[in-house]
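In response to reviewer comment 3 from the previous cycle, which asked for concrete evidence that the modeling workflow produces usable outputs, we include below a single protein chain processed end to end. The sequence was submitted unchanged, and the resulting structure tokens are shown without manual editing.
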Amino acid sequence: MRPKDVVWTLRLMVPLRMPVMLWGSPGIGKTYMAKQTAEELDYNLIISHPITDDPTDYKGLPFAVEINGVHQATFLPFGHFMHALDASRPTIWFFDDMGHGVPAVQAAAMQLIEERTINGNRLPDTLTFLCASNHTTDRAGVHRMIAPLANRFGCHLDVEVSTEDWQAWAVVNKVAPEIRSFINFRPALLNQFRPDSGDRAFASPRSWHKMSMILGT
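The workflow returned the following structure tokens.
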């Protein structure tokens, strides 16, 4: 699906609080699409990275409380989970690189995405989930998504690279005209990711944007 069609779909699905999963190769702009959707809908945006998370991050820290003179254990929300619980206005909670999370982390996120409740802490109706990942065939260190989590999403969208969409984005985001002209001349070089190449660096929409920043210095 072309990026502009992905954003159009997200603008439809997010207000319905329907969780969406984006799939695509590294560097093609999945994170930017989440940011663009939040901006266009006037939503707040929380970005989590499951690769750095532990399963308990979605449960809370063990904490002792006193109830009727008896000490009991509970879980204290913290970090992004705490911010999500406090979301008083429309908010997207974006799990970037969900596939990099180990199965135990995916399983913990599964309960939040489907039930929206964990340990008695219920997420507000103002919150919508959005996730993104590389494909397992991209050889990007992605774990296979556990089936119960995959089934929680309202839809799975495969993001493609579109030179036309990128050129429109590049104009709005003031990408260097030299780069826009070069890509117009050699559109196949917009994205050169090849899972089997072994290259340490490769051309992608993200890397061309970084090059534009270098040229602007």
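The helical segments are 3-13, 30-41, 79-85, 103-115, 147-150, 163-172, 177-185, 205-215. We consider this sufficient to address the reviewer's concern, and the full set will be provided in the supplementary archive.
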